[in-house]
Design a protein that fits this description.
The chain is of the alpha+beta class. The protein is 26% helix and 26% strand. β10 and β11 form a beta hairpin.
């Protein structure tokens, strides 16, 4: 039963990517794009099926690298309640942020994050402190690609009082930490906060592992 549910969820996410034009954005046919993504279905059995928007947990998400499909494209196709996502990372752009060395990210263009936690228990902690707590739990903070993937597949996961930072993406020599929240117009917003500043509505998201 669990396997069937996870496989159906995988198919839903793949169809979501297809319907949102990801093959075209990657300059591939739908068939070639599916051929890249579909083998990942063999990995979903490692996930715990736990979708709880209030608690902030998800079993897995299919992640598409920004080297394959740009963050700009992905965010405009990450909609919540009919409102498309936007990017406000000034004075930087998504390409200026890279995964930190302490977090191993697959080199593959498409992979999965498993057993995601939005960070309800580390709300109102500065990102630097939240990072230490995540590491103590043997978990890994998320990147921009992974955060965008979450709201692409699960827009309801982005909640007003518990949005999330993406501690695994950083701009070199910079104290800015990317995060995704709902702006005043209730649009998903990819922006940044300072690494030492706490926010009562902002946690730090993590996953248990990445598979490819």
């Amino acid at each position: 039963m669990k396997q069937d549910i996870l496989h159906l969820e995988f198919k839903r996410q793949l169809d979501n990517l297809l319907d949102n034009g990801y093959p075209e954005a990657a300059n591939l046919s739908r068939e070639k794009f599916k051929a890249i993504v579909e083998p990942l279905i063999m990995k979903v059995d490692s996930a715990t099926y736990d979708i709880d928007y209030e608690k902030g947990t998800l079993p897995f998400v299919i992640v598409v690298s920004n080297k394959f499909v740009s963050t700009e494209f992905a965010m405009t196709h990450a909609s919540k309640d009919g409102k498309d996502g936007i990017i406000k990372l000034y004075p930087h752009e998504p390409r200026n942020f890279s995964p930190i060395k302490d977090v191993p990210i697959p080199k593959q263009n498409v992979y999965m994050c498993l057993n995601i936690d939005r960070g309800k228990l580390n709300i109102n902690l500065p990102p630097n402190e939240a990072f230490d707590l995540i590491a103590k739990d043997s978990r890994f903070p998320l990147t921009i690609d992974e955060g965008v993937a979450i709201i692409t597949h699960y827009p309801k996961f982005l909640m007003k009082n518990n949005c999330f930072s993406l501690l695994a993406s950083r701009c070199k020599g910079n104290k800015r930490v990317p995060a995704i929240w709902l702006n005043s117009k209730k649009q998903p917003n990819l922006g940044w906060c300072w690494d030492g500043n706490p926010h009562t509505w902002l946690g730090s998201a993590s996953c248990s592992q990445r598979l490819y």
